[in-house]
Amino acid sequence: MDQQRLADGLAPWAVRAAESRGRLHPEAAGGVRSPFQRDRDRIIHSTAFRRLQYKTQVFVYHEGDHFRTRLTHSIEVAQIARSIARELALDEDLAEALALAHDLGHPPFGHGGEDALDAMMKPYGGFDHNAQSLKAVTLLETRYAGFDGLNLTWETLEGLAKHNGPLRRPPPYIAEYDRRHPLDLTMHASAEAQVAAIADDIAYNNHDLDDGVRAGLFTLEEAAALPLVGEAWEAAKRDNATLPGDRAISETVRRVINAMVNDVVAEARRRIAALGPRVADDIRAADRPVVAFSDGMMEANNELRAFLFARMYRHWRVNRTTQKCKRALQMLFTLLHGEPRQLPPWWHAKAGEAGSREAAAAVCDYLAGMTDRYALEEHKRLTDPTVPG
């Protein structure tokens, strides 16, 4: 455990809820809950969070009930983030809130859907899922009487906008929002946001390794040619004299996750000791992230990512589905942008004139919020005359 803990149990450089920069729209305190606990709860109760249940990572929803979705991925990221934050004496609630919110802006059909919307939105600044996540929690959610969005704390919004690092050329919506509510975009985010970002990397690669084996896209033996996976597999077999085949992948993956988490904690402690921060803003002002893999683990993680890219994301079965879904989403955009009167009334009111920038933004937001299932059903409604509108 980190030895530099203050009376509240946090490290000096941790973000403190009592010192939060507050919310864009001032609100009364939340009783027994800290501001970051309230952020987490608002995220969990949001419509965008519920929709993650039917938004895919790699496989479309109908391909199997046991593959990860954006929702299960976000829960796994939150679990890893809390574990790392606890070891580093950081605010676990802020790390958890950021982990749960980081994928709220993802459109249907995984990265294929993001590519499709980015292509259609190129004349209007493109599409970025991180910017869309910020837009979801600051504008698109309509749960409260006094404001649009969830009115999250500055620290949560900062972490969402730049958890992958400083933004010197921010996407249009992040730049627009920053003009109204500055988020210090040219600085690093807090250590808690950095924890959520690396927890995302750990969860993503490991659950895709798990799903890829279970889907038959590659075998555990093939993945074990990678040093990190091979070492974990050998350890699993040493610890279990008779390891059933259907449990081998789970036993291997959990050891890979554990190795990555331990590496991040050790490397973060080394970087923090070298930096010597005294307050949270010292982390933001650093010239590099303080929460990161060691060089050796980064190399191993990159090898795993390259393997998954070649054997899973570019697998012909996955590619067929991806291309079909991209074409469906692009067709939806074209049809609705060209004739926004086909949109539901609330979205039609936002869209304005056919073919306009406003129509493009409204259609993009409408499509980005869809689940895989709803997008495919909407495609049928707009293209199949036998399906009621």
UniProtKB/TrEMBL annotation:
Residues 70-205 form the HD domain. It holds the Pfam family HD. InterPro entries: dGTPase, dGTPase-like, dNTPase_2, HD/PDEase_dom, HD_domain, PHydrolase_assoc_dom. Coiled coil: none annotated. CDD domains: HDc. SMART domains: HDc (SM00471). PROSITE patterns: HD (PS51831). HAMAP family: dGTPase_type2. Belongs to the dGTPase family. Type 2 subfamily. PANTHER family: DEOXYGUANOSINETRIPHOSPHATE TRIPHOSPHOHYDROLASE-LIKE PROTEIN, DEOXYNUCLEOSIDE TRIPHOSPHATE TRIPHOSPHOHYDROLASE. NCBIfam families: dGTP_triPase, PRK01286.1-1, PRK01286.1-3. This is Deoxyguanosinetriphosphate triphosphohydrolase-like protein. It comes from Falsiroseomonas bella.
